[in-house]
């Protein structure tokens, strides 16, 4: 349902700005959005410069978000997944673990890639090994012999003759 909106002005110390916005969002009494393009922002809003600590926090969270997005791509997130809500106080604990998890997932992903390549190589030789199986079974008494195989393209088979 669409309701008529009114412009509100909130006055208070900048230190409480984030907490105020979270409180307003939690009780769902205001909708904060960027003004439309036809309104010059300078006439409506006064842009607050980010404090150094807030800027550092923003950069840290953006790095963590990129790392998490990369992890989701590597892990292929399940289709039925609901993101848990995390409080700001819990965030630091989670952020400390991201680097460790990222390193471990990348190592596992690299190991998986190596195993997939090895499986691919084994599958290529399977046909050749199946061809030698009858010969090897007939040589069961000759365990001290070394067998060497040679594969030649069909177009060059006259070399062997």
Mean pLDDT: 77
Helix fraction by DSSP (H/I, runs of at least 4): 55-70%
**Order of helical and strand elements:** HHHH
- Give the tally of β-strands: 0
Please describe the biggest sheet, giving its number of strands, its sense, and whether it closes into a barrel.
none
Low-pLDDT stretches are none
Task: Please state the structural category.
Answer: mainly alpha
Strand portion: under 5%
**Whole-number radius of gyration?**
32 Å
Helix count, DSSP H or I runs of 4 or more residues: 4
Through-space gap between termini: 86 Å
Overall form: elongated
3D architecture notes:
It is elongated, with a radius of gyration of 32 Å. It has four helices and no strands. The mean pLDDT is 77. The longest helix has 51 residues, at 88-138. The protein is mostly helical and 161 residues long.
Topology:
Blueprint: H1 17-27, H2 41-44, H3 52-75, H4 88-138
Helix pairs in contact: 3-4
Defining traits:
elongated, 161 residues, 4 helices, mainly alpha, 56% helix
What's this, in brief?
The chain is an all-alpha fold and 161 residues long. Helices cover 56% and strands 0% of the residues. The chain starts with 16 loop residues before the first helix and ends in a 23-residue tail after the last helix.
């Amino acid at each position: 349902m669409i309701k008529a909106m009114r412009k509100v002005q909130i006055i208070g110390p900048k230190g409480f700005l984030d907490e105020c916005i979270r409180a307003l969002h939690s009780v769902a009494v205001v909708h904060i959005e960027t003004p439309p393009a036809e309104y010059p922002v300078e006439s409506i809003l006064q842009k607050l410069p980010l404090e150094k600590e807030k800027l550092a926090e923003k950069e840290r969270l953006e790095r963590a978000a990129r790392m998490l997005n990369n992890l989701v791509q590597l892990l292929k997130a399940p289709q039925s997944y609901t993101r848990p809500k995390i409080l700001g106080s819990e965030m630091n604990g989670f952020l400390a673990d991201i680097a460790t998890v990222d390193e471990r997932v990348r190592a596992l992903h690299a190991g998986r890639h190596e195993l997939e390549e090895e499986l691919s190589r084994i599958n290529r030789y399977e046909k050749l090994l199946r061809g030698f199986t009858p010969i090897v079974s007939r040589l069961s008494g000759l365990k001290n012999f070394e067998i060497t195989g040679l594969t030649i393209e069909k177009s060059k088979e006259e070399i062997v003759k």
